[in-house]
Amino acid sequence: MMHRRHREDVLVRRPVQVETIPSGHPVELEAGQLAQITQALGGSFTLLVEGQLMRLKGSDADAIGKQPPEAIVVPEDLHIDDLEPLVWQQLRTCYDPEIPVNIVDLGLVYRLEFEPLAEQDKVRAVVDMTLTAPGCGMGESIANEVCDKILALPRVGEITVNLVFDPPWDRSRMSEEALLALGL
Questions:
Q1: Of 100, 150, 157, 182, which sits 20 to 30 A from 38 (CA to CA)?
Q2: What whole-number distance in Å separates Cα of residue 97 and Cα of residue 118?
Q3: Are 54 and 19 in contact, with CB atoms under 8 Å apart?
Q4: Where are the alpha helices (DSSP H) in 130-174?
């Protein structure tokens, strides 16, 4: 992936669905449109197109001439007790498209728990998370990314992501690394 402060001009090579930032509304980019990558973290891309920020899923990276992100390689026979660190690892690959810090270091994940499912060796992951601002239109998109990435892990049969706003998020929840990355 590219360095987060480097911007790169790209040409859209095929029609592709993106989400506008911060509203989260879907938009289709046409082949031949010019874009600038402003952030490439966690497997997705933040693009600047005609003055509007947009989020491109990593699975559509070929539309801008990039490689899709490599999935975390996990053995299928993963023991259930080894699942939690992998879930946290996956959560650290989820980013707010406007902020170059993952949602864990931003302090947006309030709770991670597992509930057994009837299916042997499968669990439901339950994540309580918040947003940096309650009106953020990208909340559903970030929650969907969390779901997709955690459901891709073996032993996770279901996931529930709860967007919560109590307690409200503030900068005190950020890790030292996040504060340094943002120059705070």
A1: 150
A2: 36
A3: yes
A4: 139-151
Give the number of other CB atoms < 10 A from CB of residue 54.
22
Q: What is the pLDDT of residues 21-59, one digit of tens each?
A: 888 889 999 999 999 998 888 888 989 999 999 999 888
* Matching residue, tokens 């559903």: 140
The CATH number given to 8-64 is 2.30.30.40
What is the SS3 assignment for 8?
strand
Q: What is the CA radius of gyration of the chain?
A: 17
**pTM of the predicted model over 0.85:** no
Peptide bond into 26 cis (omega under 30): no
Whether residue 129 contacts residue 109, with contact meaning beta carbons closer than 8 Å, is answered with yes
| The token pair that represents 24 in the structure block | 């989260």
CATH superfamily of 80-181: Fe-S cluster assembly (FSCA) (3.30.300.130)
Cis peptide before 15 (omega within 30 of 0): no
